[in-house]
């Protein structure tokens, strides 16, 4: 019905969804009925009869339960007890899982790291053109003031590097 009349109430671990019947709600409903009756009378042009309904006393009294209601509610109580036990068990298992998760997480992470290190280790190979690179560096160290003397070594290194690049592609 209205947003202000329905309410969620927590009682222990049990939730209640329903409608609270109070004086304000009854007044609102009564006011709506009167407005609907007035619009119907405007459409027909009749004179409205005087209201004959007695207001419902606050607080509203529900009828006394019969034996059938008591039997049904006893079965519901058994079911609620069963559901509460299951809820407590689920909470206990959940808390145990959370405790063990904190202990097990570092172990699992270490195992993952070990597996990745074992399986995905890149093979070690010598870099291409290592001899040509060494010859270039030795030439530059031998002739620091005359780098043009190393042109042949640099050309050999450049040719090797281009060939290595083509081999990769």
List keywords for this structure.
single chain; 169 residues; 4 helices; elongated
The main sheet comes to: 2 strands, antiparallel
CA-CA gap between termini: 72 Å
- Global shape: elongated
What proportion of the residues form beta strands (DSSP E)? 5-15%
Number-wise, the strands total: 2
Summarize the structure in words.
The chain is built from 4 helices and 2 strands. The chain has 169 residues and is mainly α. Strands 1-2 form a two-stranded antiparallel ribbon. α3 packs antiparallel against α4. It is elongated. The N terminus is likely disordered.
Short description, anyone?
With 169 residues, the chain is mainly alpha-helical.
Helices and strands in order:
Layout: E1 6-11, E2 14-19, H1 23-44, H2 67-119, H3 130-142, H4 151-168
């Amino acid at each position: 019905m209205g947003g202000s009349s329905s309410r969620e109430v927590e009682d222990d671990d049990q939730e209640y969804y329903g409608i609270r019947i109070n004086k304000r709600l009854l007044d609102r409903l009564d006011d709506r009925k009167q407005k609907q009756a007035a619009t119907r009378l405007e459409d027909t042009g009749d004179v409205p009869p005087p209201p004959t309904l007695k207001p419902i006393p606050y607080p509203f009294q529900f009828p006394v339960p019969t034996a059938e209601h008591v039997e049904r509610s006893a079965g519901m109580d058994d079911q609620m007890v069963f559901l509460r036990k299951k809820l407590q068990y689920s909470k206990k298992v959940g808390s145990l899982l959370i405790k063990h998760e904190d202990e097990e997480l570092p172990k699992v992470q270490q195992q993952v790291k070990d597996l990745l290190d074992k399986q995905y280790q890149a093979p070690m190979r010598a870099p291409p053109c290592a001899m040509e690179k060494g010859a270039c560096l030795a030439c530059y160290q031998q002739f620091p003031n005359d780098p043009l003397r190393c042109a042949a070594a640099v050309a050999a290194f450049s040719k090797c590097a281009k060939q290595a690049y083509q081999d990769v592609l």
